[in-house]
Amino acid sequence: MWSAAAGAQVFTSGFETWNDTVPAEWMGSKTSLSADSVTQVTTDVHGGTFAVRLQNSTTSHRRFTTQPVPVTNGAIYDVTYWVRGTGEIRTGLFDDRPSGGTSGYAPYTNYFVSTGSTWTQVTQQISAANDFASAEFILSVRSTAGPEHLVVDDLTITEAAPPEPVSIYAIQFTADPGGASPLAGQIVTTGGIVTAVDTIGADSYFIQSGTGPWTGIYVNDATNAVALGDSVIITASVEESFQYTRLTNVTSFAAEGGFAVPAAEVLTPNQANEEQWEGVLVKVPDIGCTALPDNFGEWIATSTTGGSMMINDLLFAYTPTVGTFYTITGVMNYSFNARKLEPRFLADIEFGSGVAEQAQGALLAYPNPSSGMVRLSGWEPNGSADFSVTDAGGRLVLSGALMNPVADLTGLPDGAYTLSLRTAKSVFRTRVVVQR
User: Fold this and answer.
1) Which of 17, 119, 154, 271 is most exposed by smallest CB count within 10 Å?
2) Is the Cβ–Cβ distance between 66 and 102 less than 8 Å?
3) SS3 state at 21
4) Structural domain boundaries of the chain?
5) What is the enclosing helix (H) or strand (E) of 377?
6) Which CATH code fits 265-351?
7) pLDDT tens, position by position, for the chain (436 residues)?
8) How far apart are CA 84 and CA 46, in angstroms?
C-alpha cells in the first residue's frame, strides 16, 4: 500500500494479499527472481496470516521488487522488514537515475546475513537520485539455504528526515576488528577538504577533516567535479566494501575552493598500514624500491626500520628505480585485500636518504619574480625531464616535460610556487614567484 505523505510511511506490505501465486504489491518489472522462487508461508509468520519465502541458492544476487512507486530526488528512505532463515539480503532501488554508470539503479546497501529461525528486524537506508514516478524498491537475495531459505514479513518504507551532520572521524573510528564503520549502511552528511583527486578514472576523490587518525575518507562520485583544496559538504551512503569504508551514492553536494590541504602525517610503513590512517594524507620517508611495478602498476617499498608497503597508481603512475630510496606523500587506500599508498602527482615523490641516497641539485630560476617565462640554471638537459609546479597550498597547478631549461609559467596567477624537476638520476626544486 502506497501513501504520498512526505516524511511518513510511504509503503507497507504484510504479504497478506496474493494474486495467483505471488504477493500483490510485488514482482515489479525489475524482478529477476523467478516466480517459483517466491512462495507463500503460512506457519511461523511474524504478523497476520502470511509471509513470503525467497529462494536463491546461487552466489549471484536476484531482485525481488515492488510495483511502481514515485520517489523524490534526494529523499532518504528507511526500509524496515523482519527476516528469518538462512541467506543474505540487502536493499536497493531502481529510480532511472541518469548518470554514474549504474543503469538507473542506486548502489545497494550492505548485505544482512541471516542465520537462524528467529525473526530479526532489519532497517536499511537507500536514497533516490531522481524524481521518478515508476521507481521500484528492491530486496536483493543470494546464498539462501533450505529448508527455510529467507522468509520476510511486515515490510515498511518510510521517508526519513535529513541526516544530522557527522564528522569523518565519527564515520571512520571503529573498534571492529574488521574495520567496519559504526555507521555502515547509513546515509550521512559530512564534509572535509579535498586532499586527492582521481584524474585518471575521474570517479573518486578523498576528503579529510583536520589531521590525525580517522580523519580521511574515500568518496566514490563520478558526478561532481572537485579540485585539490576544495571544501566539500556531501550527503552520501556509508558503505563497507571488502573491509574498506567509503562514501558512495552522493545525493547532495556543495563545494567552495581555495582552502589549504591538511598537512601530511609522517609515518613509517608499519604505521601507515594501520586501519586508523585509511583515507588520510600521509608522508612515508626513506622507503626503497625493491622491484619494478607489476602489471597492475603496484610496487613494494621497504624501510630499513619500519616495514614495507605497497605503492599504487590510482591517482598517478610512476616508474621507480630499483634500489633507490624515496620519500612519498599520498593518501592511504585499500583494495584487493591490501593497503596502498597513493601518490597524487610527481611532487609527491621525492628522493629519500637510504642506501641509494640521491643528492638534489641546486636549481636556480631567473628572472625571479617572473612574469611567466623562467630560465633554469643548475640543470643541464640530457633528454627530457618531468616537471611539476605546486602552489603554496600544495596543489598541483602545472606539469609536463622539458627538453630545455626554460619553463613557461605564463598561465599561472600571481603567487609563490614550488617548481620540481626530475630526471632519471636527479631531482631539483626551487621556489618561483610569479608577479606581473
Assistant:
1) 17
2) no
3) coil
4) 9-159, 168-256, 265-351, 361-434
5) strand 373-377
6) 2.40.50.140
7) 333 444 577 899 999 999 889 999 999 999 999 999 999 999 999 999 999 999 999 999 999 999 999 999 889 999 999 999 999 999 999 999 886 556 899 888 889 999 989 999 999 999 998 999 999 999 999 999 999 999 999 999 999 988 889 999 999 999 988 888 999 888 999 999 999 999 888 789 999 999 999 999 999 998 899 999 999 999 998 988 778 899 988 888 999 998 999 999 999 999 999 999 999 999 999 899 888 899 999 999 998 778 999 999 999 999 888 888 889 999 999 988 899 999 999 889 987 655 333 444 567 888 988 888 898 887 766 667 788 888 766 677 888 888 888 889 988 988 888 888 777 666 777 888 888 7
8) 10
Residue 207 is placed in which grid cell? 576528503
What is the dotted CATH code of the domain comprising 168-256? 2.40.50.200
Q: What angle do CA 222, 167, 330 make, to 5 degrees?
A: 55
Tracing cell 539503479 back to the chain, one arrives at 105
Top-level class of domain 9-159: mainly beta
The reported pTM is 0.70
Yes or no: is domain 361-434 CATH 2.60.40.3080?
Answer: yes
